[in-house]
Amino acid sequence: MLLFGIIPYLFENYPLKELTIEAGNQKRLEERLDKNEALKDKKHNIQIVPIKQHKHKRITHILNTLGFGKYKKAFKFFGGGEALTDERPFWHDGRNIPVLFNANVRKGDFVLLWGIGEPNTTRSKLLYKILLPRAKEIITREEISYDIVKEHYKAKKLKLHEDFSLEVLRKFKKTTSKDKYILINITTATSTSDNIQKIERFCKSYPEHKRIFFPCDMNDDIHCFKTLQAIIPGLDIYDRTKYPLQQTIELFSWTEAGIGSRLHFLLPLKFFDKIFQSLCQAEKVQKMISA
Question: Which of 51, 149, 162, 276 is at a distance of 20 to 30 A from 26, taking alpha carbons?
């Protein structure tokens, strides 16, 4: 959803001749794009490339840091659930940006998109002072992130824009289904005994509904399926990689309720006015779902 929401935005708002997307799994992303031809604009010149350009990962990092990487002259867009946050461990708290792309940071040839977490540690405050004033533009998806940047840091250009997935959700009409079911999601990080009990109680509130486990991250959430399957009778799994995005969004528009951890699992439930319960206390979920 985020990808198909942000691609047209970038082409409409920046003078792009070509958009290069670095992907951890190039083949999988290419297959996702092919499955969703209806959401693609043929005028947009896009190429998908693998993140690892050299067989030795450390050499790629050194080249990028020194400004000699394959895309050394390219303007960069950096984003994520929370582009900067000290809720994640080093270096995925945003510190990978100045480490890997030092040349872009020094020149200010980059844009930061999406959430900006509250800096609670000295190292995060220092990171924010380095990155935020240098960014050509900062685009936040909710008011809390916007206020954090506006009140504490000098930014060249700051903009508030809704989460890009919402633009994709609006493209599909809400439909109905004869089947009655609920959706379940959990991550390995939130797979605690307390949360598993909450899922079990939630399912008991819908005794006649079919239960479907929805793994958002196919490298992480999917490992929780067998744990839940052992305590929830008749639990099925939905492999979203096999279906077009439209069919997956229809699943959320049809379901009666859902319980889960991932932000972009909870967001469609909220968008379609479904009954839902969050299992995650992460800052981004609190800002986007609970606020």
Answer: 162
